[in-house]
Give the backbone structure.
Amino acid sequence: MSNLNQETVTSVRHWTDRLFSFTCTRDPSFRFLAGQFTMIGLPVNGKPLLRAYSMASAVYEEQLEFFSIKVPDGPLTSKLQHIALGDTVLVGRKPVGTLVQDSLVPGRTLYLLGTGTGLAPFASIIRDPDIYDRFDRIVLAHGCREVAELGYGQALVASLKDHEFLSDLAQDKLLYYPTVTREPFQYQGRITDLLESNKLPFNLGLPAFGPQDDRVMLCGSEPFLADMVKLLDRSGFTEGSAHQPGTYVIEKAFVEK
Ligand code: A2P
């Protein structure tokens, strides 16, 4: 387990019967970029059982934070959902990932589009002061089935209002767009449909969505990503990478079947 740090759980919060978040200690040598992920897990029968998780915490925070789904018969999450204060979790020492600022060419509006636990990398990104220097505004759109599943994101965005050094930046530049598909809410519908129709930008008082000024980061379920990529490619966006920055980048959210 030499490529893993052993960390101690410092808090756990259950948001719904499908979602929870937790914090743990952070080895001082563990450095990452906002938006990256690493392998995390638990020792099971003497061996590490690991899955990819995005860091939800800010790069400068003393603790690490993760946002997770609970799958009743999932090999890892069926156990991970029962962690408690003081328990040990394993955290991979090598963060990686494509949702990083340098893979995008400069633009005016950054759209962070996530479904379900795909919000996690964006929780780190919207707490990174650098992102507010690079863009005129940041749109955080989070799509869920039910209102209760928005809880983690709503609390996060509310916490930025009183943040010691981000409150003014977030107030000026962060636009939050939570949307729900399976019950009534202020904003309703799939993110794909809301962009295709330009309802999402128009609701926020922004110009129509397009590759000239807009940049996009995507994280969510495979069907969501597939449909979003079709929409983006059709609209003239190009996928970026560390070698060749583009107008959008994409990452699969953690899933456990
Ligand atoms: P819907 O309720 O219409 O399926 P999940 O929990 O299944 O990952 O879904 C999270 C959110 O993503 C839900 O609001 C869901 O809408 C939406 N969603 C699922 N598939 C797609 C897709 N192909 N394109 C856009 N949104 C999607």
About this structure: The longest strand covers residues 4-14. The first helix runs from residue 77 to 80. Residues 115-116, 143-145, 181-182, 190-192, 221, 223-224, 227 surround adenosine-2'-5'-diphosphate (CB under 6 Å). The two ends are 25 Å apart (CA to CA).
